[in-house]
């Protein structure tokens, strides 16, 4: 009975007792069994009863159950110890040696993650090692704190990671907000980064001119329109009586005469009062300071862009050293996404290898150096003659236009002869220079820089010749102003005396501003010439693209089936995008904007519209009418060269404006001065 009671108790409490208690019960059962056996022996040696067999079976079952429960408890203890060790890490701290080792390992893993791209390993190994290092850092980086410090450290790390993610998302958002980014990427995928560099430069110029327009429009034009005297209140803001009949004719407005001449677009419209409006806004000082700030801001932006390009190009090696290595490992343009452009790039790289091999072989050969020097000197003499001839032609045309301006019935060509001649010279002289440059036999990159320099000299020479010829016209107008100034004073004095003689008590009626004699206002005349030159340059550029690219591409595309030879492979073929000519056209146009913005504040707004339309029009022309270049050049080689030309023309544009401000007297009856 005692055995049965103890066995029932053991069965009921086996799931709750520990290992030591079960051992004690087992020993007690063995001792009780021994006692019961002795009593049975004393009674007599008989066969084992049914109760003993049942007790033995129950003991075996309890042993099996005890072993199973021990295994379960071991597993639970392992799990509880692992969770307890992780939970008790908040309370227990690492030793100093372990902490130092852990910090060192974490720093090593971080350094490995940052330099993973530079490792000469296979991509599979890089990815596996990177994942292991990231997992190690994430697991043990938080263990560098102690107690509450660990939670603070984990919170800081979480916020740092979220901040990095936020900055990355914000950079992506800013990239999506960049104007025309997808359009430029499309052009870049078809024509390479060299053609896309022109549109990036065009977008940069648009941003600069937008800031300049904001300065002029917000600080000069808006205050004069809102707070200045309205149109018709004074002679400088009124069309003369003799011109009112034709002031709204299209031919007059196309020449920027009539109502456009006496508008806020030009210098003569602005008032010379010290302060205007209820704000007491000092318009003359604002006009002068904005003119200075335009050159200051432009100088700062150009120099900053040059410095950024210089920092980005420091990793570029010298092309004269290790030529074949540079060509082998750095020639491919990974931004190309068009099969035709990829084929052209492949052929270009192959051709460049062949040319380099030929150059290397011919560099060791003897050549007729005297003949080459003679041809180069001859080419430079011919180009200098072309430059001098174009300058003389512009000077002659400007002088003849002064006689045409005095004629009553001058035709459209006679009124716009200067702009037409300058645009035609800019169109036909660069191809002539390229033909003459074939005599020099320069390396293509050196030949490109010579070509850019000569075209720049042509544009700059034409512009300065135009200014010198315009200065003669300004001097004539200054002499005319002295006469008109006396006539104006006598007219106002006679009007006052006549009205006072009729009735001395009454105030004399004011003279109609349209009847007051006025001077020629040479500042407005100079501004009109710059606006005409800019508008004619825009029209010639668009007509050239439309005729020279689009109509030519349509002719080659649809007439090639019924022509005697292959028009696509031979003459005239499809046109390539002229990167250097378009960039120099932008630089030359920006020089005119810097020169003319002081005399025509609205000129910057016209240039903003020109750049905006050029982006869409030229992107359409490139994608529809042009073909990729046979030799695709890297864009990074020319960025600072273009910026250097822009910086040079910025200084050269400042000189005429500074000369006129400091040496020539302002008009007496127009403008803020």
UniProtKB/TrEMBL annotation:
Pfam families assigned to the protein according to its UniProt record, in alphabetical order: TMC
Region: Disordered, residue numbers: 1-96
Location in or out of the cell: Membrane
Top-level division of the source organism's lineage: Eukaryota
KW Membrane (keyword) present: yes
Assigned GO CC terms: plasma membrane
Annotated keywords: Membrane, Transmembrane, Transmembrane helix
Primary localisation category: membrane
Family assignment from sequence similarity: Belongs to the TMC family.
Name by which UniProt lists this protein: Transmembrane channel-like protein
């Amino acid at each position: 009975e005692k055995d049965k009671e103890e066995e029932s108790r053991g069965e009921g409490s086996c799931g709750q007792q520990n290992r030591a208690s079960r051992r004690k019960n087992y020993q007690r059962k063995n001792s009780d069994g021994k006692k019961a056996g002795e009593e049975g022996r004393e009674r007599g040696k008989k066969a084992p009863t049914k109760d003993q067999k049942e007790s033995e079976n129950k003991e075996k079952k309890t042993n099996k159950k005890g072993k199973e429960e021990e295994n379960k408890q071991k597993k639970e203890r392992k799990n509880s110890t692992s969770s307890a060790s992780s939970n008790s890490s908040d309370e227990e701290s690492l030793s100093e040696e372990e902490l130092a080792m852990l910090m060192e390992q974490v720093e090593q893993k971080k350094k490995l993650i940052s330099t993973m791209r530079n490792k000469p390993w296979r991509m599979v190994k890089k990815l596996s090692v990177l994942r292991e290092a990231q997992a190690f850092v994430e697991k043990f980086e938080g263990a560098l704190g102690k107690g509450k410090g660990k939670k603070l450290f984990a919170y800081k790390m979480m916020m740092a990671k979220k901040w990095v993610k936020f900055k990355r998302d914000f950079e992506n958002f800013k990239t999506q907000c960049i104007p025309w980014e997808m359009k430029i990427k499309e052009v870049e995928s078809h024509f390479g980064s060299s053609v896309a560099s022109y549109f990036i430069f065009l977008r940069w110029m648009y941003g600069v001119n937008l800031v300049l327009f904001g300065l002029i429009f917000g600080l000069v034009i808006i205050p004069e329109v809102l707070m200045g005297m309205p149109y018709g209140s004074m002679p400088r803001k009124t069309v003369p009586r003799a011109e009112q009949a034709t002031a709204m004719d299209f031919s007059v407005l196309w020449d920027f005469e009539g109502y456009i001449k006496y508008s806020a677009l030009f210098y003569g419209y602005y008032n010379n009062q010290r302060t205007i409006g209820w704000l007491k806004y000092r318009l003359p000082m604002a006009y002068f300071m904005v003119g200075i700030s335009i050159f200051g801001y432009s100088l700062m932006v150009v120099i900053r862009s040059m410095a950024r390009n210089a920092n980005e190009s420091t990793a570029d090696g010298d092309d004269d050293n290790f030529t074949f290595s540079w060509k082998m490992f750095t020639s491919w343009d990974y931004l190309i996404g068009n099969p035709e452009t990829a084929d052209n790039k492949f052929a270009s790289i192959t051709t460049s290898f062949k040319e380099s091999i030929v150059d290397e072989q011919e560099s060791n050969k003897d050549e007729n150096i005297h003949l080459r020097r003679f041809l180069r000197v001859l080419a430079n003499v011919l180009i200098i003659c072309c430059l001098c001839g174009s300058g003389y032609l512009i000077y002659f045309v400007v002088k003849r236009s002064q006689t045409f301006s005095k004629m009553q019935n001058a035709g459209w060509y006679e009124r716009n002869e200067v702009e037409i001649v300058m645009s035609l010279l800019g169109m036909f002289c660069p191809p002539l220079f390229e033909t003459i440059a074939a005599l020099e036999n320069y390396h293509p990159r050196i030949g490109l820089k010579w070509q850019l320099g000569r075209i720049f000299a042509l544009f700059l020479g034409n512009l300065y010749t135009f200014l010198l010829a315009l200065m003669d016209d300004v001097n004539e107008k200054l002499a005319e102003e002295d006469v008109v100034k006396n006539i104006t004073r006598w007219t106002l004095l006679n009007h006052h005396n006549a009205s006072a003689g009729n009735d001395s008590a009454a105030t004399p009626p004011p003279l109609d501003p349209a009847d007051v004699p006025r001077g020629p206002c040479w500042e407005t005349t100079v501004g009109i010439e710059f606006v005409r030159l800019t508008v004619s340059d825009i029209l010639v550029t668009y007509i050239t693209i439309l005729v020279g690219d689009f109509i030519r591409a349509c002719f080659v595309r649809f007439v090639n089936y019924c022509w005697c030879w292959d028009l696509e492979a031979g003459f005239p073929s499809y046109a390539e995008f002229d990167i250097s000519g378009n960039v120099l056209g932008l630089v030359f146009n920006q020089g005119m904007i810097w020169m003319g913005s002081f005399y025509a504040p609205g000129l910057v707004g016209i240039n903003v519209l020109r750049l905006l339309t050029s982006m869409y029009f030229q992107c359409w022309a490139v994608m529809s009418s042009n073909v990729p270049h046979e030799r695709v050049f890297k864009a990074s080689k020319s960025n600072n060269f273009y910026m250097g030309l822009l910086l040079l023309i910025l200084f050269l544009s400042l000189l005429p404006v500074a000369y006129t401000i400091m040496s020539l007297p302002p008009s007496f009856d127009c403008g803020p001065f």
